[in-house]
Amino acid sequence: MAIRDTLDVVGGKWKLVLISVLTGQGAKKFNELSRDAEISPRMLSKELQELETNNLVRRTVCNTKPVTVEYSLTDYCRTLQELIEVMHNWGINHRKKMISEK
């Protein structure tokens, strides 16, 4: 049940990518995040809403003209850092293995 709960929160094509971009680069505006993660605005909006609902991403409305919104990771999301690093390293090793077997 715990694995399923985890996958419900961070599973899918984009969630870990977005978390990784925000981890490496800090707070981002919507268009920057869309560009850096190479995700469509429509899909980005959906994914950010889900991440915000699960308390992984913080949405901050900036007092600028025009109004801008920044997204950043919550402290709660940072508890995933160790898991993400393990998955990153596994992915590197898996890719090397698959390439070497061709």
Q: Mind explaining what this structure looks like?
A:
The protein has helices at 2-10, 15-25, 30-37, 41-53, 75-78, 81-100; strands at 28-29, 57-62, 68-73. It is α+β, with helices and mostly antiparallel strands and 102 residues long. The protein has one domain: Winged helix-like DNA-binding domain superfamily/Winged helix DNA-binding domain (Arc Repressor Mutant, subunit A, Orthogonal Bundle), CATH 1.10.10.10. Strands 1-3-2 form a three-stranded antiparallel sheet. GO terms for molecular function: DNA binding. Residues 1-99 form the HTH hxlR-type domain. This is Transcriptional regulator, HxlR family. Keywords: DNA-binding, Transcription, Transcription regulation.
Summarize the structure.
The protein is 64% helix and 14% strand. The chain has helices at 2-10, 15-25, 30-37, 41-53, 75-78, 81-100; strands spanning 28-29, 57-62, 68-73.
Tell me the span between the first and last alpha carbons. 36 Å
Query: Which residue ranges are poorly predicted, with pLDDT under 50 across at least 5 consecutive positions?
Result: none
- Count structural domains: 1
Shape designation: globular
Give the rounded overall mean pLDDT: 94
